[in-house]
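Hi there, hope your week has been kind to you so far. Would you mind checking whether the tokens look sensible for this chain? I owe you a coffee for this, so here goes:
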Amino acid sequence: MQKRLNGNCHCGAIRVALTMDESASLSPRHCGCDFCQRHAALYVSVPAGQLTLTLAEPDRVSRYRFGHETATFLLCQQCGVLAAATCELEGQLYAVLNANVLAPPLTVDKGSVPVADYEAEGIDVRLDRRRQRWISRVTVVEGSPA
């Protein structure tokens, strides 16, 4: 059986739909970098899941890269919400989802969620981790589907 989790940024310019096996579990985590901490991002991923990112108003979506520039962060220019980060590896798009955009929200004690420190990670190790842990089936749809 499959379950689907939906959500969006505050204004709806970015919508998300995560489909995963009913038995799959989400393990929320915080990234310790300044950018993610300032956005209070709570990341989740299901490697075998499927994520659809609908950019209903593409002109309102910023794509931000920093550091090693191996990930692209999708932020809404209108409401300021960080929705997800993507990474293209060998022609395949991977993503991690900010659970704060899900509706209804995840029931989790955010204070007990571990903070990961990836600063010492080499690029090869970082990309391998993303291949293993990030959502491996990602579709980006630009514009509202008919």
About this structure: The mean pLDDT is 93. The chain has one domain: 2-142. DSSP finds two helices and eleven strands in the chain.
